[in-house]
């Protein structure tokens, strides 16, 4: 018989042969393997047919003996079986690490959402021993990471990337005009004709929606040189150019040191964050985080009282911003 099958498909036969050779008995080998003796004999016969060699000499009334080829095959079998055992341990370790690790992708502004931080703290109380990793990124990066399995969950203000992704409302807040204190005299509560610095359109999917919403205001839009929220705040404050900021309490407290914060006259602009996960697979730590995000103890219900309007989580551009 040709040895055209991969050797790993013959592991059971090699394990059976090693037991026979080491025990010098079919009966003892069957007991060691917790198998019937006829099955043990069949496995040896099939192995010998596969390699084309006699490995064990069978003689009635005499102890079995191993042929020279059998001695060499036993060394090979033991080496392969040890490698398989090591691989099994590595696979178990990989599984255990995967199950005890949760990777969540977030947008930078969510750092300032108290409910997000309360949720993380509550999860860590409930899932002691779980390694929680928080990864910050742009919305497109987060969506890609969720779709390819690199991230278990994401907290994003972007739309659902596809129908394989499940989303639940998490937090909604108003957007305010943030004006550097040294430039307050240059701005009015109206946005008409104002200079506003934002991240580039490619940095966030709702920026083009925002600009379309305010198209009638003849705003002079200025791109931030770097695509991150901290960079936007730094450049806006340094250059004396206003920007739009989500009215998240902790963030507002920090912004007030350098900015005057005004409501946007004539517009009710809001940004919504959703928690997203992939459908179709189970992971206990991920599902616990998901359940906690919707529980009353997190205290985010007041911010999403209009959650019924989030049922279409791939909104039209006009619905992406509340007006």
Care to describe what's here?
This protein is an alpha/beta fold and 323 residues long. The protein has three domains: 88 residues, Winged helix-like DNA-binding domain superfamily/Winged helix DNA-binding domain (Arc Repressor Mutant, subunit A); 124 residues, Periplasmic binding protein-like II (D-Maltodextrin-Binding Protein, domain 2, 3-Layer(aba) Sandwich); 90 residues, D-Maltodextrin-Binding Protein, domain 2 (3-Layer(aba) Sandwich). Helix content is 40%, strand content 19%. The chain is built from eleven helices and eleven strands. The strands form three sheets. Strands 3, 4, 5, 6, 9, 10 and 11 form a seven-stranded mixed beta sheet that branches. Strands 1-2 form a two-stranded antiparallel ribbon. A two-stranded parallel ribbon has the order 7-8. The longest helix is centred in the first third of the chain and has 32 residues. The C terminus is likely disordered.
């Amino acid at each position: 018989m040709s040895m055209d099958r991969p050797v790993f498909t013959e592991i059971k036969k090699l394990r059976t042969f090693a037991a026979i050779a080491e025990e010098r008995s079919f009966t003892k080998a069957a007991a060691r393997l917790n198998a019937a003796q006829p099955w043990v004999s069949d496995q040896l016969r099939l192995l010998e047919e596969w390699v084309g060699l006699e490995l064990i000499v069978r003689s009635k009334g005499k102890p079995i003996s191993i042929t020279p080829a059998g001695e060499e095959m036993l060394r090979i079998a033991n080496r392969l079986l040890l490698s398989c055992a090591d691989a099994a341990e590595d696979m178990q370790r990989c599984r255990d690490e995967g199950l005890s690790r949760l990777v969540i992708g977030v947008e930078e502004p969510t750092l300032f959402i108290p409910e997000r931080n309360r949720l993380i703290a509550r999860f860590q109380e409930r899932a002691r021993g779980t390694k929680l990793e928080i990864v910050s990124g742009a919305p497109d990066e987060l969506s890609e990471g969720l779709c390819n399995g690199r991230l278990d969950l994401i907290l994003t203000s972007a739309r659902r990337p596809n129908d394989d992704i499940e989303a639940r409302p998490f937090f909604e807040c108003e957007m305010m005009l943030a004006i550097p204190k040294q430039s307050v005299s240059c701005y009015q509560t109206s946005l008409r004709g104002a200079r506003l610095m934002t991240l580039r359109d490619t940095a966030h999917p709702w920026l083009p929606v925002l600009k379309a919403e305010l198209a009638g205001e003849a705003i002079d839009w200025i791109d931030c040189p770097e695509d991150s929220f901290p960079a936007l705040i730094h450049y806006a404050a340094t250059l004396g150019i206003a920007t739009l900021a989500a009215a998240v309490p902790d963030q507002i407290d920090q912004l007030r040191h350098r900015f005057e914060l005004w409501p946007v006259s004539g517009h009710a602009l809001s940004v919504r964050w959703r928690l997203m996960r992939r459908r179709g697979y189970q992971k206990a730590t991920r599902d616990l985080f998901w359940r906690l995000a919707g529980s009353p103890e997190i205290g985010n219900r007041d911010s999403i009282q209009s959650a019924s309007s989030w049922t279409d989580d791939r909104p039209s551009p006009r619905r992406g911003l509340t007006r």
